[in-house]
Amino acid sequence: MNANHPTKAGKYYDQVGDVRNGQAPTTGSYITRTLLTGNEGEPDNYKLTIDGGEGNADWTTPRHRHNFEQVRYVLGGDFIIAKNEVLPAGWVAYFPESAYYGPQLKSANLSLLHLQYGGPSKIGYWSVAQRKKGYDDLIAKGGKFGDGVYTWFDEKGGRHNQDGAEAVWEQIFGRPIEYPVPRYRDLIIMNPDSFNWVRDPNTPGIARRSLGVFTERDIRIGFTRMEAGSSIRFGTEPAVEILFIKEGSLSHDDETYPSMTAFSTEADERPVTITAKDPTELFYVKLPTF
Fold it and tell me: Which residues contact 227 (CB under 8 A, 6 or more apart)?
């Protein structure tokens, strides 16, 4: 099991560069911190970040799409995901492969749990190291990132613009980007408060709130509520699993983990038992099973 807390997490755009705004934000800008990452080259590679909540600048992107998937959970603040479309605090959105969204605006007051991962088509997801190298290589070629796009000039002086993330992907993998045929036409927006808690009949003190199961790869999104002193097994699925402590605290192997701690397990890891020190609520995502 891996665990990390925002107070111990590095700044993501300082690590990789910003394909939208053209520079790595520093103190006083929009801040994203890297909580957990997966394994480079694997179809279920992923990155979990906690975005914003500590800067004083907005962050924007034009309308675009990706060949990987995302799950976003708004902890607080304002998040515009498309024209006239706000994802309210407390809500969760599933971003399927190839689904367009934007123009996007992450306000300076936004606090957002943001998971990106290789989707059901097995195209995969870049690592921090790959994205950094792709970004640096494109800058070294004389191009620039800004307003969501990468701009460069050919040998005849012709100007070219490409979505910034697309340009980095193509630089990393050395081929034109590919997008799978969409399984869903649009984003799936979920209000957790509209779902009921269901008691786990096999585990005392545990209730679950399932928001949805997606695609043939059995992607799951939901919440778990634990009474103080109750325990659950984590890492029982044949896929990467993610937990985030929304409120409360957990213990494992004599170590206590406070709220905002994130956890992950790999598909081939042994399950672990985690126990609620206080009444605790967890956000949960199971990544695709391959």
Answer: 204, 205, 206, 276, 279
DSSP 8-state secondary structure symbol assigned to residue 102: B
Helix residue ranges, H only, the chain: 12-16, 128-140, 164-173
Query: Which domains does the chain possess?
Result: 192-286 (2.60.120.10)
Report whether 25 contacts 33 (CB < 8 A).
no
Residue 241 CB contacts under 8 Å (≥ 6 apart), including other chains: 234, 235, 264, 265, 284, 285, 286, 287
The pLDDT tens digits of the residues spanning 178-224 come to: 999 999 999 999 999 999 999 999 999 999 999 999 999 999 999 99
Q: Is 68's pLDDT higher than 50? A: yes
- In this prediction the pTM is 0.94
Q: Which residues, in sequence order, are CB contacts of 40 under 8 Å at separation 6+?
A: 127, 129, 130
> Is the CB of residue 95 less than 8 Å from the CB of residue 62?
no
CA pair distance 38, 160, nearest whole angstrom: 33
Nearest to 289 by CA among 117, 65, 87: 117
Q: Is the pLDDT of residue 22 over 80?
A: no
pLDDT digits (tens, 9 = 90+) for 235-284: 999 999 999 999 999 999 999 999 999 999 999 999 999 999 999 999 99
